Amino acid sequence: MKQETTFAHAKFSNPFMNASGVHCMTIEELNDLKKSDAGAYITKSSTLEKREGNPSPRYVDLALGSINSMGLPNLGFHYYLDYALEQQKHQETPLFFSIAGMSKEENIEMLKIIQDSAFSGITELNLSCPNVPGKPQMAYDFQATEDLLERVFNFFKKPLGVKLPPYFDLVHFDQMADILNKFPLTYVNSVNSIGNALFIDSEAEAVVIKPKNGFGGLGGQYIKPTALANVRAFYTRLKPEIQIIGTGGIETGQDAFEHLLCGATMLQVGTALHKEGPGIFTRISKELQEIMDEKGYQSIDEFRGKLKSL
Ligand code: RRO
Q: Which residues are catalytic?
């Protein structure tokens, strides 16, 4: 395989990892990912206290993707931090640590604990959970996002990325990129699910998930063109030190190749991992290799970001 990837000054055997939220709630699931062919893996976004999340059914696989309103269920920040600290004693698959505080203060508090801990890996600050009733997606509030990052980078000195929601307007890409470029971010992860979609079962004349009268985050094939647009828009607007993780609609080697062409360095798989299980990393990386071999590429660096315009 010729998929070695340099990200945040570290080497990864390949660019693939899970998207936070899928197959990463418990230590058992995390260990499945560690043993898989993924190049890295990430914990479920956590809050300081354990949360049950929203009532079920709250995640449904659809023919072309998924809809979810999980509501940030997680086993609590310290459950994942303890796991991360244990993992880093062994030189195994690198682990990213995801947090999603319910308020600015909670995010700051968790980041202070990470800063003061022995954790030496990469932290992902999720600014885009669409599913907690009454809590808007932080990264749709540009001023609040800038204020939070200002406070964070006053004390946080470890590698940090942000998980963003999809944007749909070129002016929003410009405005968000201007904000992000002010900070020493390690990466931007685009995109989280498309928030507050509505999938219905017309035979039953009903919604398919229980929380929020059926409104939930859309993932999978439905969202690949939106994800590619966000990866491309940030790749062409952010300073080169800020790398991109591409997430959204990655199910095959070709989907992966397209995200890489748009400028992604790491690639996260959510909906397709939920459908197929951790064996997907073996298949998808083999499929990407077949495309690279056919095109004569010896490394991902030869084509990353090199999407042509007409
Ligand atoms: O737990 C969730 O409902 C959830 C989160 Br935190 C997120 O970031 N994205 C998503 O689709 N669901």
A: 129
Task: Give the number of the atom of ligand 1 that is nearest the alpha carbon of residue 195.
Answer: 11
Question: How far is it, in rounded angstroms, from Cα 227 to Cα 218?
Answer: 12
CATH, range 5-53+72-193+220-302: 3.20.20.70
Tell how far the Cα of 291 is from the centroid of ligand 1, in angstroms: 32
32 CA distance to ligand 1 centroid (A)? 21
Of 304, 270, 245, 205, residue with least CA distance to 68 = 270
Instruction: Report the distance separating Cα 68 and Cα 61, nearest Å.
Output: 9
Q: What is the pLDDT of residues 111-159, one digit of tens each?
A: 999 999 999 999 999 999 999 988 899 999 999 999 999 999 999 999 9
Query: Is 192 annotated in some ligand binding site?
Result: yes
pLDDT in tens, 21-59: 999 999 999 999 999 999 999 999 999 999 999 999 999
Predicted complex ipTM: 0.99
Structure tokens at 94: 């690198």
Q: In this structure, how many other beta carbons lie within 10 angstroms of the beta carbon of residue 289? A: 16
